[in-house]
Amino acid sequence: AQTVTQSQPEMSVQEAETVTLSCTYDTSESNYYLFWYKQPPSRQMILVIRQEAYKQQNATENRFSVNFQKAAKSFSLKISDSQLGDTAMYFCAFMKLALYNFNKFYFGSGTKLNVKP
Amino acid sequence: NAGVTQTPKFQVLKTGQSMTLQCAQDMNHNSMYWYRQDPGMGLRLIYYSASEGTTDKGEVPNGYNVSRLNKREFSLRLESAAPSQTSVYFCASSEGLAGPTDTQYFGPGTRLTVL
Q1: Which residue of A has its CA nearest to B6?
Q2: pLDDT at site A9
Q3: Do B92 and A45 touch (CB under 8 A)?
Q4: For residues B3 and B32, what is the distance between their CA atoms, to the nearest angstrom?
Q5: Beta carbons of A109 and B40 less than 8 Å apart
Q6: What is the Cα–Cα distance from B16 to B22, expressed in whole angstroms?
Q7: Residue B98: what pLDDT?
Q8: What Cα–Cα distance (Å) separates residue A31 from each residue in A28, A56, A60, A73, A99?
Q9: Least confident of A65-74, B11-20, B92-101
Q10: Cβ pairs A/B, distance under 8 A
Q11: Which residues are CB-contacts of B39 (< 8 A; sequence separation ≥ 6)?
Q12: Rounded to a whole number, what is the largest CA-CA distance in chain A?
C-alpha cells in the first residue's frame, strides 16, 4: 500500500522569504507521479506542481519548485518569495501509474502555511 | 468553462436524514471521484468512477452510495446520515487516462454537518 506523510501540521513564513514543506512517501512502485496541491480558505484544491518519478530533474513552476529524492522517497516543496496569497493548506499526493487501469491518488494530511506580512 | 461544480456548499442534517450531493464537470473528463476531508487527515477516497457507467468503492465507502448519471455528473448519496459523516466533501475529475497527464481537478467542496 502507498502512504504519504507530511510531518509539519503548520508552518509560518514572513512575506518575501523562502519556505520548504516536507513530504515523504512509501511505495514499492518504480513508476509514479507526485503532486503538490494548494487549498486556500475558499477550500478549492488547486494543482501547484507535478513531478514524474522517472525524471531526475526537479520540477519548477514560477516561485514553486520541488526537491525530489527518489531513493529517500522524499518530495519537498520550496516556495520562494512567499506572498500573502500563498497562505493555504498544502497537500502532497502520490499517484500510482496503472497501465490499462485506474490511477489512484493518495494524499497526505496536509501542512497549513501562514504567510505573515 | 466552470471546471468542477458542487452543490450545495453547506448543509446541515439531522441523524437519519438522507441527502444527495451533486457534482458536475464540463471538461469532458472520463473519471470522477468523491473524497471526504477531516481535520488532521488527508483526503480519503469514498467512491470513484473510472469511466461513464462504472463505479467502484474507495477507501471509506460505508454509508454512501454513488451514481454516475452521465459523463458530466457524479452524485453522492447519504441514505441515513450519521454524525461520523460530518466532513467536507470534495468532488474531483480527471482525464482518467493511464498516463502522465492524469491530474485531478477539484470542486469547491461541500461542508456537511450531521447533528
Answers
A1: A44
A2: 92
A3: yes
A4: 12
A5: yes
A6: 19
A7: 55
A8: 9, 12, 20, 12, 10
A9: B92-101
A10: 63
A11: none
A12: 48
Neighboring chain A residues of B94 at a CB cutoff of 8 Å: 103
B70-105, pLDDT tens digit by residue?
999 999 999 999 999 999 999 999 887 655 557 788
- Min CA distance, B90 vs chain A (Å)? 8
**Given the C-alpha cell 522517472, which residue does it identify?**
A54
Question: Residues A66-94: what's their mean pLDDT?
Answer: 95
Given the DSSP bridges, would you call strands B10-13 and B110-114 parallel, antiparallel or unpaired? parallel
Q: How far apart are CA A51 and CA B56, in angstroms?
A: 27
Residue A32 confidence (pLDDT): 87
Asked if A82 and A115 count as a contact pair (C-beta separation under 8 A), the reply is yes
User: What mean pLDDT, rounded, does chain A reach?
Assistant: 90
